[in-house]
Amino acid sequence: MKGATVSTKIPAPGAEVFALLHDYERRLEWDTLLCEARLTGGFKAAEKGATSVCVGRDFFGKVAMETRYVSFEPGRLAAVELVGKPWFFEKFAASIRHDDVDGGSMITYKFRFAAKPRWLAWAMEPMMLGYLKHETAKRLEALASVWGRV
């Protein structure tokens, strides 16, 4: 499996950033990758066990990814795993940690994935890794811009 870690400093307390990041009513205010984000399965708020669907913008083919929260510690850590698999992911999991630091918080996003079909993964995974790292950094910078740059 391939994976990476992307971090960004945000000029706001970790609990505040965490709350915005997991507020699906406000997700599209900052998320540069998505055209739709919603909780599913009757969940009204993000929590352990909650499921969500996030749909990429037109440029990304409007691919929908369904995930389930496997960990949820408000203000500190959330982790998800892929449950609805688009054609190109065999596995995907991610965590996002919030640590308070002087002048704000550090947000650290870690992800791991395996591509499918497996016989083509050797060619797909390096490209997917580069793309995911780039898009993750862009999304975290957009999240930070809600409060202004550090």
Account of the protein in words:
The chain is an alpha+beta fold. The chain is globular, with a radius of gyration of 15 Å. Strands 1-7-6-5-4-3-2 form a 7-stranded antiparallel beta sheet, covered by helices on one side. It has a single domain (2-145), classed as 2-Layer Sandwich (Alpha-D-Glucose-1,6-Bisphosphate, Chain A, domain 4). Helix content is 22%, strand content 43%. The chain has helices spanning 14-21, 121-145; strands at residues 2-10, 34-40, 51-56, 64-73, 77-84, 89-101, 104-115.
**The CATH topology:** Alpha-D-Glucose-1,6-Bisphosphate, Chain A, domain 4
Radius of gyration, taken over Cα atoms and rounded to an integer in Å: 15 Å
Helix/strand-derived category reads alpha+beta
CATH superfamily heading: START domain
Q: Can you count the beta strands?
A: 7
Strand order of the largest sheet: 1-7-6-5-4-3-2
Distance separating the two termini: 33 Å
Would you state the CATH class? Answer: Alpha Beta
Share of helix among residues?
Answer: 10-25%
Number of helices: 2
Number of domains: 1
> Secondary-structure element sequence?
EHEEEEEEH
Major sheet summary line: 7 strands, antiparallel
Work out the strand percent: 35-45%
Protein name: SRPBCC family protein
Organism: Haloferula chungangensis
Describe the structure using short key phrases.
alpha+beta; 7-stranded antiparallel β-sheet; 7 strands; 22% helix; 43% strand
Explain the layout of strands and helices.
Blueprint: E1 2-10, H1 14-21, E2 34-40, E3 51-56, E4 64-73, E5 77-84, E6 89-101, E7 104-115, H2 121-145
Antiparallel strand pairs: 1-7, 2-3, 3-4, 4-5, 5-6, 6-7
InterPro entries: Polyketide_cyclase/dehydratase, START-like_dom_sf
Pfam families: Polyketide_cyc2
Protein name: SRPBCC family protein
